[in-house]
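### Sample
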Amino acid sequence: MFEFFVGEIDDVHPEYIVVETNGIGYRIICPNPFIYKNIKDKVKIYTYHYVREDASLLYGFQSREEKALFSKLISVSGIGPKGGLAILAAGEPNQVITAIENEDEAFLMKFPGVGKKTSRQIILDLKGKLGDLANVSNHTLFNEQDREIAVERNPLNEALEALRALGYAEREIKKVVPKLKNEQLTTDAFVKKALQLLIQQ
């Protein structure tokens, strides 16, 4: 229904951003909302409109390829939008595609909500069907450019909130905190680093 939105960032939360376009604010759920740190930045976000009986939700992505990968992931039985976002939030789509093509169940099981049965289902459903996405580059998911950090916000705490919103358990988050707390990073950089540490555990 909605291919993309072009507008200004009005607000950023651990789970979603608000984009204002033509006087209307759209709540768009993203893999890592903190890549959109600067309020009033003009952005173009590719959207996936998800409708169920009790909700009508917009999911947003930085590229058409990322959106297409999300769409393929949630077509798998056992993977809902939250699971699809958690997989994309790791920021390494080529790793995910490679894991599927190589039938690497152990790698896929590192994501929240993905057990042995679901990882096997992902491989069965998607192996050999992601060729058009094989060249998705990592920079389409995360902009490494330094962004201003609002003084009143703590980037590490915001990043931890984002991990919780993606479905990671407190015990998993606590394991990576010691490796992060002495770093001086932006929130989106903290999220990316934490996700990489989580999938390496």
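The longest helix spans residues 187-200. This sample (Holliday junction branch migration complex subunit RuvA) is used throughout the tutorial notebook.
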